[in-house]
From TrEMBL:
Cofactor: Mg(2+); Mn(2+)
GO-annotated molecular function: DNA binding; double-stranded DNA 3'-5' DNA exonuclease activity; endonuclease activity; metal ion binding
Entries under Pfam families matching the protein: Exo_endo_phos (PF03372)
Family statement: Belongs to the DNA repair enzymes AP/ExoA family.
Cofactor annotation remark: Probably binds two magnesium or manganese ions per subunit.
SUPFAM superfamilies recorded: DNase I-like (SSF56219)
PROSITE patterns referenced in this protein's UniProt entry, alphabetically: AP_NUCLEASE_F1_1, AP_NUCLEASE_F1_4
Binding-site list for Mg(2+): N7, E34, D147, N149, D247, H248
The name this protein goes by in its record: Exodeoxyribonuclease-3
Site (Transition state stabilizer): N149
The entry's keywords: Hydrolase, Magnesium, Manganese, Metal-binding
Site label Interaction with DNA substrate, positions: H248
CDD domains registered for this protein in UniProt: ExoIII-like_AP-endo (cd09086)
Amino acid sequence: MKIATFNVNGINGRLSVLLRWLAEAKPDVVCLQELKAPQTRFPATALRDAGYGAIWHGQKSWNGVAILARGQDPLETRRGLPGDPEDDQSRYIEAAVDGVLVGCLYMPNGNPAPGPKFEYKRRWFDRLTAYAEELLALEVPIVLAGDYNVMPTDIDVYNPDRWRDDALFRPEIRDAFAELAAQGWTDAIRTLHPDVRIYTFWDYFRNAWGRDAGLRIDHLLLSSAIAAHLSAGDVDRHVRGWDRASDHAPVWVQLDLNLSGHRSRPARRARR
């Protein structure tokens, strides 16, 4: 099973890029972030024509997450991160696909820091960590994929000193990521490439793409029930160089699973 995450930075404006990459990479499951589209404007028909069923949690102008599955419809198990019933930002959606529970997330950016946006990010991270612990207790194959808006270590940023006070790199946020991983999650890309500078995001400004001034902020975390099946993973960084590209590139992992004849089953009742 090939599972990918891709912050598309506006699904309708960059639909041609997404469809081109889907046809080229043929992932089995895709987590999308920053749809920047209300629920009614998600391009479900175009994606179905491309061979992908989808569930999505849209929001006008900002945020928005979706899960695509090749040749089938993902079975939704949760919509929205628990822990704050008043939080109406579209940042988490979850589905079962072929026996794997997939959580798609879009962590708040948090800038400027310190400030209200940074405190919201910290609260959101705390909620994610608490919920992730509940998920691990299920002892089933789980992937938490998305734009975490955090560079976990110095090797994940082109110029660490330039980013020390940024909300994506402040010690509180890196510590929160380390605490999450310490529950028993495997950072798939870093596990496969322990000493390599790998980036998933290049800003549109200051020729960041041309200078390879990137950040690794898109991650796939694997539960212990599935981490042993990790066989490959990388960043399709060439997609960042396409016309009208997102400022993120798709990130993917390959999991060697015996899924013959097995279809999705819900891990928990859907929450809307």
